[in-house]
Amino acid sequence: MKIAIAQLNPIIGDLPGNAAKILDAARNAASYGARLLLTPELSLCGYPPRDLLLNPSFVEAMNITLQQLARDIPANLAVLVGTVEANTKAQFNGGKSLFNSMALLEAGSIKQIFHKRLLPTYDVFDERRYFEPGLQPNHFTLDGINIGVTICEDLWNDEEYWGKRSYAINPIADLAILGVDFIVNLSASPYSVSKQKLREAMLRYSAIRYKHPIIYVNQVGGNDDLLFDGNSFALNREGEIVCRALGFDTDLAYVEFDNGRHDLLPSSITPVSESEDEEIWRALVLGVRDYAQKCRFSKAVLGLSGGIDSALVAAIAAAALGKENVLGILMPSPYSSDHSISDALALGDNLGIKTQTIPIGNLMEGFDNALVGLFAGTEFGLAEENIQSRIRGNLLMAVANKFGYLLLSTGNKSEMAVGYCTLYGDMNGGLAVIADVPKTRVYSLCNWLNTNSEIIPNNILVKAPSAELKPGQLDQDSLPEYEVLDDILQKLIHEHQSAAQIAAAGHDAVTVNRVIQMVARAEFKRRQAPPGLKITDRAFGTGWRMPIASNWLAVKGAYQAP
Amino acid sequence: MKIAIAQLNPIIGDLPGNAAKILDAARNAASYGARLLLTPELSLCGYPPRDLLLNPSFVEAMNITLQQLARDIPANLAVLVGTVEANTKAQFNGGKSLFNSMALLEAGSIKQIFHKRLLPTYDVFDERRYFEPGLQPNHFTLDGINIGVTICEDLWNDEEYWGKRSYAINPIADLAILGVDFIVNLSASPYSVSKQKLREAMLRYSAIRYKHPIIYVNQVGGNDDLLFDGNSFALNREGEIVCRALGFDTDLAYVEFDNGRHDLLPSSITPVSESEDEEIWRALVLGVRDYAQKCRFSKAVLGLSGGIDSALVAAIAAAALGKENVLGILMPSPYSSDHSISDALALGDNLGIKTQTIPIGNLMEGFDNALVGLFAGTEFGLAEENIQSRIRGNLLMAVANKFGYLLLSTGNKSEMAVGYCTLYGDMNGGLAVIADVPKTRVYSLCNWLNTNSEIIPNNILVKAPSAELKPGQLDQDSLPEYEVLDDILQKLIHEHQSAAQIAAAGHDAVTVNRVIQMVARAEFKRRQAPPGLKITDRAFGTGWRMPIASNWLAVKGAYQAP
Q1: For residues B467 and B479, what is the distance between their CA atoms, to the nearest angstrom?
Q2: Confidence at residue A557, expressed as pLDDT on a 0 to 100 scale
Q3: Structure-derived torsion over alpha carbons of residues B175, B180, B181, B183, reported in degrees to the nearest 10
Q4: Cα–Cα distance, A53 to B505 (Å, whole number)
Q5: Burial category of B293 from C-beta neighbours within 10 Å (exposed 0-12, middle 13-18, buried 19 and up)
Q6: What pLDDT, in 10s, does the model give residues B363-378?
Q7: B498–A374: do the CB atoms touch at under 8 Å?
Q8: Can you give the pLDDT at residue B555?
Q9: Which chain B residues are within 8 Å of A397, Cβ to Cβ?
């Protein structure tokens, strides 16, 4: 049996468009002799549809689209389509009104519907908000072959692999008892660094444990902050990779189940990069391209400060949208160093993007004059620094609004964590491209980018980082060294460590407490940040839900270092 | 048995501070002869603690605080304290690692711990993200009286009252079978217009149905976007109100359970206002006061345009923080009408707040000059209108940053819905005071405020609304009449109606589709808005989770009116 894997890039909510993508894959697959086509979780509406699911007319439209799709797919091809089904018993028995489902379409009709059993409700996932868990193991028979169906999280609860259970049941164990021939897993699994290694190791463990081939299908593409990396793959009964689809791109891949050998046969295996930098780069390029396209932007604008963050974002934007579609704007102030201008222009030349220069000195004077009465007798300080950043933010938005460009913001995760950024200033933008990329990773990405030739001008890489909002200012006047800061942030944000634990790992206790306070106090800024492309397992954004008006952390000594 | 109701206003995460508030109430209650003190849901950490719960050191600190509190409370007083307990079996059985709990403290120790059974995961609630549901009915015996314990949502599933089930079980039915003498419900129930009527009607139904007195305890205070209105109350077996605590303020109320009559005795009943405007006004004043205090601001600044929105917000701020702590800034442009200045000054006089005037004409020229090259050959349009708004936003933030003021933004819900507002301009602020108040309600609140004397200058109430960003501009040039707009928005946002349904209710189909498109396209602005005080059952903010890059709604004709 030839099985096709449709690694699709849906647009959230675009039911006719997504159905057309499924149909196109189905026609291709049928013409290549496939008997079964697999599509990702919720492939009809795209993942995550979020509160669109609360809209009854949306659910109804999805149903109508699914029925039409069932009629349209080629004869002799069975297709698994991700959709929702109403929980008709909810009114009487309680529970959420929908199931996260896969519909088996065959011979013009909906043959069977399967319900996702494990509903992730953590990090960026809100599935308990919408869905009721399915209670039955899911499987169907096609040409005498018994195929187990699991949806994403259903395969993420192997208690032996994890050393603990996250849910009471393990759907793959249920399927093994039922004697399925192989298992498909239809997923929309968001990208984070090295996640593909985790997926393959985890499913290899389950394949070997239960002696079942597994075909893992993933969505691809960027949907707001979430990036889906594709990388669909298949494992034989020995847990060996027999197929891997493209990373960070749509694909239509094929695997063959040999009924005699009772196993999947070797097929085409796309290699995965060993470089984390390359992987992150591809993720970010995809994220910018998809956010722009799905929001109907063809061009982007950003501020070029001559620093490394905007340099990286400009390079990503040029790769995502084409260099001719990226405009970099230099906005020097009297505090700008000469090299900030020459470095930004050199970057523009290297990338081949357009640049414009708009000096802001006059506008700074204008604000000084406007505020001279109110600010009389005060010292130059943060307020004045922010004014500069907000002048730039206003100019960038003016250009974006005037010409219909997408404004990309350029702040990195380290800055966003400690609030070393200006709300309504450099934080402005429709998309925060590197908001989940720590500063140390920004350097590593730029160095990787320069492997073969100088794309990021070397001077940008070697000079000390500075916001240049006052004379002689350096980031390290206000912040710990970035190597130190990023390690503290990793322990605090990703590993949920306490100040005591972080200090015990060798960090200065005063510095640790200062960083923790900065992180807490910057919550109000992060709340108003644009969506940031998520590349780690804990990003600021939809999966980060912190109170603003709160009094935890060092403030009352709750977080005392030893 | 005398029972005290501690209607507390916790600060999220402030464990020592919240414990001190509980202890203070306990000492007072003991001195009045109370045998049992009731506190709201999660009273130790405040509701909602959100992702602070993911921090093991936070959970550990809560535990330590709880144990100390048990030692500190007066002898002869039992206290129910809202806290979390670890789900120690999660590792082996699956499930979330915490229970949303009430601890019974008595005689120096933690006597019993109860687990919330129904975990709301909808709108602003994310309880399945953190908690495992309790499986047992909760009750305890004190002086021979059998007391049933329920936590908030536990009492929101009476299938007879609602005509449907939201959850499989109804905890009050379980308690009735166990023969409890009365039931306490420890809540943190967010405010929305008229919600108190709903609570009282619902619990009256259950009290009568099960013939049990119910004591309902609610948190009070503002926590970011969420407002808790207090209004704790008690019902006797006949479902009659025998006690009601203050609305929108802390309180310590008492009820007496008469063991002989097997019922609660009449006690003090605070009347509730029949005026929705008064109720909303008090909610918004509380929200501003608490957000400011809990974020350690004593003063607020806002832009005064001479329009009705900023007038209302100024009045709320003056009531919340004291007129001497509110600064209104007028920022007239060449497009500003004379009355916009005179009306704003008259408002400032009426309220007794300070005002400052900063004309922005020169700054507008400065931006025109800066952009003259890039914008050559283009027409004056939205970009230029936004520049003005962002100049004002920059000036307001400069004042806020310089003097440590909280900037209040003044946009209403109708504007936020359709995007009739400028991101990084008039949307700037730490708190969006009336972001959940539709424009028609803004008028009604101002008229209510003027009942006895003119607080909002009459000219502000009678003139046509205008953003004054170009000559002669009126809101109604771009938007439907606000009565029409607000009704469409109510049906769309609150009632989840389709375009066809809204049009069928008598609205022009073209207008309906245009509004729906505006709402969808403004999602990127709302994503970056400050927290807005929630006063309806569906507010933009934490309970509104919409994709930005999506293609549902009129775009592809999915939302066709008939």
Answers
A1: 12
A2: 42
A3: -40
A4: 23
A5: middle
A6: 999 999 999 999 999 9
A7: no
A8: 40
A9: 386, 390, 423-424
CA atoms within 13 A on the CB side of A402: 20
Confidence at residue A553, expressed as pLDDT on a 0 to 100 scale: 62
CA B484 to chain centre: 26
Q: Do A550 and B294 touch (CB under 8 A)?
A: yes
Write the CA distances from B43 to A370, B177, B196, integer angstroms. Answer: 47, 29, 20
A542:B545 CB<8 A: yes
Task: Tokens for B476, please give them.
Answer: 């109604």
DSSP designation for A410: -
Sheet of B138-142, strands arranged across: B138-142, B145-151, B182-187, B214-218, B233-235, B241-244
Task: Kindly report the pTM of this predicted structure.
Answer: 0.96
C-alpha span between A410 and B556 (Å, rounded): 33
- The residue assigned the tokens 């979020």 is A50
Rg of chain A, C-alpha, whole Å: 26
Q: Any bridge partners for residue B215, and if so which?
A: B184, B234
Distance CA B86, CA A349 (A): 58
SS3 for A293-335 is: HHCCCCCEEEECCCCHHHHHHHHHHHHHHCHHHEEEEECCCCC
In this predicted structure, the answer to whether residue B554 has a pLDDT above a threshold of 50 is no
Provide the token pair at A529.
């940040």
Measured at the CA of A363, the angle between CA A361 and CA A368, to 5 degrees, comes to 95
Select from A295, A430, A498 the Cβ nearest to the Cβ of B57. A498
Phi, psi angles (nearest 5°) of residue A205: -60, -45
Residue-wise pLDDT tens digits, B229-248: 999 999 999 999 999 999 99
At residue B559, φ and ψ (nearest 5 deg) are: -105, 45
- Mean pLDDT over residues A158-184, rounded? 95
For chain A, domains (ranges, CATH) are: 2-272 (3.60.110.10), 278-478 (3.40.50.620)
Question: What are the φ and ψ backbone dihedral angles of B396, each rounded to 5 degrees?
Answer: -65, -45
Amino acid symbol at B66? L
The Cα-based distances of A93 to A90, B136, B169 in angstroms read 5, 19, 8
The ipTM, to two decimals, is 0.96
**B82: phi then psi, degrees, rounded to nearest 5:** -80, 125
Active site residue A152: yes
The strand pairing partners of B235, in sequence order, are: B214, B241
Q: Is A446 noted as a catalytic residue in this protein?
A: no
pLDDT of residue A561: 32
Active-site residue, selected from the candidate residues A21, A45, A116, A127: A116
What is the pLDDT averaged over residues A309-321? 98
Enter the DSSP assignment of B423.
T
What sign does the dihedral B310-B315-B316-B318 (CA atoms) show?
positive
- Dist. CA B473–CA B305, nearest whole Å: 14
DSSP H or E run through A146: strand A145-151
Cα A552 from Cα B152, distance rounded (Å): 24
pLDDT at B561: 32
- pLDDT for residue A467: 87
* Residue that the structure tokens 């005509």 belong to: B163
Which residue, among A441, A531, A148, A467, has the nearest Cα to B545 in the 3D structure? A531
pLDDT at res. A472: 87
Separation CA A86–CA A53 (nearest Å) = 11
Do the chains contact at B167 and A91, CB–CB below 8 Å? no
pLDDT of residue A551: 86
Q: Is the peptide bond before A48 cis (omega within 30 degrees of 0)?
A: yes
